[in-house]
Design brief:
The complex is a heterodimer of chains A (about 180) and B (about 525).
Chain A lengths: L1 H10 L22 H9 L1 E7 L5 H8 L12 E3 L8 E5 L7 H10 L5 E5 L1 H5 L21 E3 L6 H12 L10
Parallel strand pairs in A: 1-2, 1-3, 3-4, 4-5
Chain B lengths: L14 E2 L6 E6 L1 H13 L3 E9 L7 E8 L4 E8 L14 H12 L50 E6 L11 E7 L2 E8 L7 H5 L4 H8 L7 H16 L5 H29 L3 H22 L8 E2 L2 E2 L5 H27 L1 H7 L7 H7 L3 H6 L15 H4 L11 H24 L18 E8 L4 E8 L5 E7 L2 H11 L8 H8 L4 H4 L1
Parallel strand pairs in B: 2-5
Antiparallel strand pairs in B: 1-2, 3-4, 4-5, 6-7, 7-8, 9-10, 11-12, 12-13
Helix pairs in contact in B: 4-5, 5-6, 6-7, 6-13, 6-15, 7-8, 8-13
């Protein structure tokens, strides 16, 4: 136990300030009103869906919860069920074998809901494109609020995309 | 340099193949195909990969290809077919079953008793085959998932738990069907293929450069391994020879990929066993490694840093000094964290004897890579057969016999420290820049090449066929997860369902890498 406490004390606090939202990432006009966004932004529950990625984006989504980015410190956490989620964070091109699962997961998220497409493939289909087995970008299958490019997008870019989705035009005070 | 001795596989007319590792190629008929695999199984060689290609446009038939990994090196078999059926080898090498099912889904060549589809979930018609040359117009079916016949376990109080394809954590999609009594797992059956996005067809007609980008995205967590295996395949087919420095830098990148992934897995395993402290400490260290990658080489995961003919990033003296300092820091931290893990009774209680894959079962299933080394099978493509620069670096192969989650954790700890030592050796003996790589000839005829690299998870193989136009005709990337997924079904037997996430994580296999 002593060694654990010592390691924690020695590592110290590594968390860095969160990035500011970037309206340029927004795909659709805000579908939710500012009040709802304000509420969500203070306790956001995210369900991640890998719709066919190479798993590179998943590495960076994991990294969002390391001590440097500390996404949970912003009141944003990943949940196990879409029924508990406010937002879907979707990666990959949508493989045709995942299309139904993605649609059903989207339907299972209660309204009001948000969708962030993370990564080059999620934005455009990427190197995989559209084919007999791939439907291409996420927006071909479910509506997307914010799209984050990058192969893979860095944790900062992913967090920026998430914050952009829950931020209305007005400045949102982030809990810190 | 002496010519390597060819493996003793009777009845095969072996031709040496120009490759970075000792390799041979042989054309066989159906009987010799079967005999070769029987001889391989008898000699303790293992199944590397099975794939197929449509050669009818070249005046040949449909062709099945097999890779045997023998002690002496790699043997590629080509079986040209008159019929749509070829001999089953899944009784000899159980991992062959799913590879054969995939070949049927993509090319319509039949083998083996299991007639269920693997990557075809109903998104294209059963009588159209995406990798046939005359395909292309697969009518998009309204992606209906036909009822998949899972193997049923009958008996009093037996019930099924269906999990996935969307899992509860941030992991890749796949379906697990547990048959349980109470919490005890009687049977686990995996169903994968959800991520199948047509990578092999995408490769067709790409330039060699574009192919490198696609190969680097077969399984993102192993992007260096795939990049290197693909680059080797291009070099093997074209006679291109990278500069010595480039080969050493590839090894540096590959070891950094291993370091990053092992750090991540050790943290995640701690977390899955209830020690969140481990996740935060190891994920902090992993982030340090990724940031150094970004700063020195321009990409956190070193994607596209290995390119055909060489590398696209280099390290200077100050960069090398930073990496050496980082290695010292990591070694101190990892040794200290290991002692915390080793002393933590709760963690050990969860990991010891959990998800046990006995050496006997592992050998029977033909498991490879880190999972094999945790079950007493000391194979590592870096150590044997020799691949420059590992022939000089001489990495130590760490193996444990426990076969449980604790053993797979121990292998990761040992390999992590070994990779840090290798990184030091690489940086201290990196050949000077200057020597130009031999450019190689753009092929004017069909050219075939292979690549083989020990990624952090296990051996990654790439077979590449280049057409007369200098573009890719066929490329088959093969992930070690093909061999290891069936082992997860065995490791879960007799365990309780709540331990499955820990067991699964201890293997940490790729879904993207096998779904393609």
């Amino acid at each position: 136990m002593y060694k654990i406490f010592w390691s924690i004390a020695r590592a110290g606090v590594r968390t860095e300030p969160a990035p500011a939202p970037d309206p340029a990432l927004r795909q659709e006009a805000e579908r939710l009103n500012a009040e709802v966004l304000n509420l969500l932004g203070r306790a956001l529950a995210i369900r991640h869906v890998d719709a066919g990625s190479c798993n590179g984006c998943e590495l960076e989504i994991h990294a969002c919860n390391n001590p440097y980015y500390n996404l949970e410190g912003l009141g944003i956490r990943f949940v196990a069920s879409p029924r508990h989620a406010d937002m879907l964070l979707v990666t990959g091109p949508v493989s045709r074998n995942m299309e139904i699962a993605l649609r059903r997961t989207f339907d299972a998220v209660p309204d009001p809901k948000l969708v962030v497409a993370a990564g080059e493939c999620a934005c455009t289909g990427g190197v995989f494109g559209e084919s007999y087995a791939s439907r291409g970008r996420i927006a071909n299958v479910i509506p997307v609020d914010v799209a984050v490019p990058g192969c893979p997008p860095t944790p900062r870019q992913i967090i920026q995309g998430i914050l952009t989705a829950v931020t209305s035009g007005e400045k949102l005070a982030l809990p810190r | 340099m002496s010519m390597p001795t060819a493996p003793l596989l009777p009845g095969l007319d072996l031709h040496p193949l120009n490759a970075a590792v000792p390799a041979w190629r042989a054309a066989v008929g159906p009987a010799a195909w079967r005999q070769a695999f029987e001889a391989a199984a008898g000699a303790g060689a293992r199944l590397g990969a099975l794939w197929a290609s449509d050669e009818r446009d070249r005046g040949r038939g449909m062709t099945a290809h097999g890779l045997i990994v023998a002690f002496e090196g790699l043997v590629c078999l080509d079986l040209e077919l008159d019929a749509e059926e070829y001999p089953d080898v899944s009784d000899l090498f159980p991992a062959a079953a799913r590879m054969q099912r995939t070949i049927r889904d993509l090319l319509g060549l039949r083998s083996g008793a299991d007639a269920r589809g693997w990557v075809r979930h109903g998104a294209w018609r059963a009588d159209t085959f995406p990798l046939r040359r005359d395909s292309g117009g697969e009518r998009e079916l309204s992606a209906g998932d036909p009822r998949y016949a899972f193997v049923r376990v009958d008996g009093e109080a037996v019930h099924e738990i269906a999990v996935g394809p969307v899992h509860a954590g941030t992991i890749e999609p796949g379906h697990f069907r547990f048959s349980v009594v109470g919490e005890r797992v009687l049977k686990l059956e995996e169903r994968l293929g959800y991520k199948h996005k047509g990578i092999e067809r995408r490769f067709q007609a790409l330039t060699l450069e574009d192919g490198a980008r696609l190969a680097a995205r077969v399984s993102g967590d192993s992007t260096v391994a795939y990049g290197w295996a693909y680059a080797q395949a291009v070099e093997s087919a074209t006679g291109m020879r990278p500069a010595a420095r480039a080969l050493w830098l590839r090894a540096l990148f590959l070891e950094r990929e291993r370091i990053a992934n092992h750090l991540g897995d050790l943290g995640a395993l701690g977390n899955d066993a209830g020690l969140a402290f481990g996740l935060f400490q190891f994920s902090r260290l992993k982030e340090d490694v990724l940031r150094a990658n970004e700063r020195l080489f321009g990409h956190r995961y070193l994607m596209d840093r290995v390119v055909p003919g060489g590398v696209s990033a280099d390290v200077d003296a100050s960069g090398a000094a930073h990496l050496l300092g980082e290695a010292d820091m990591l070694e101190r931290e990892v040794v200290s964290l290991r002692s915390i893990y080793d002393d933590h009774a709760g963690l050990q209680e969860r990991c010891i004897n959990c998800g046990r894959l006995t050496p006997r079962t592992a050998a029977r299933l033909g498991v490879v890579g880190l999972a094999a080394r945790a079950s007493g099978i000391a194979i590592d493509a870096r150590a044997h057969p020799s691949l420059e620069p590992y022939d000089v670096l001489a990495p130590r192969v760490w193996a444990h016999r426990g076969g449980d989650v604790a053993a797979r954790m121990a292998v990761r700890f040992d390999e992590l420290l070994e990779s840090l030592a290798l990184q030091r050796r690489i940086l201290s003996s990196l050949p000077a820049p200057g020597s130009q790589p031999a450019r190689g000839e753009p092929p004017r005829e069909h050219a075939f090449g292979i690549g083989w690299v020990e990624g952090w998870r296990g051996e990654v193989f790439v077979a590449l066929d280049i057409g007369p136009d200098g573009r890719i005709r066929r490329c088959h990337p093969h992930d070690p997860s093909w061999q290891n997924w069936p082992a997860v079904e065995y490791a879960a037997l007799g365990n309780i369902v709540p331990d499955f996430p820990l067991i699964n994580k201890s293997f940490n296999l790729s879904y993207a890498g096998v779904d393609l």
